[in-house]
Amino acid sequence: MPLVKWALVLNVIWKIEGDVNIQSIIQVMIVVILGTSIAYLIYIASLNYISSSLAGILTAFEPVLAAILSVAIFGLKFSFIELIGFLLVFVSIFVLEKRL
């Protein structure tokens, strides 16, 4: 088992393993365009309507919403570690809110 952990650390990221075809390239482009670029532009546009501190607090809800949707849509189950992470995100949001 320890050998597997070191293999993950020592694996070179520029060595592509797996099947690279036009479908996988299109899927990566969809994630880049929709999941990153458009989401970032919407976030920047929202700063015209809300304060930057509120926008920062709302971005802290992003992993919470992703976890809830992964359970609702894909039927994933929370493990104990994920539940602790979920609670830590909520604690950090409350700490950020107290500072405002």
Automatic annotation (TrEMBL):
Question: Which Pfam family would be a valid example here?
Answer: EamA
Please report the stretch or stretches of sequence annotated as the EamA domain: 10-96
Q: Does the keyword Membrane apply?
A: yes
Q: Which InterPro entries does the record associate with it? A: EamA_dom (IPR000620), EmrE-like (IPR037185)
User: Transmembrane stretches, by residue range?
Assistant: 20-42, 54-74, 80-96
Source organism superkingdom: Bacteria
Keyword annotations of the record: Membrane, Transmembrane, Transmembrane helix
Spell out the GO cellular component terms annotated for this protein, sorted alphabetically and separated by semicolons: membrane
Q: What is this protein called?
A: EamA family transporter
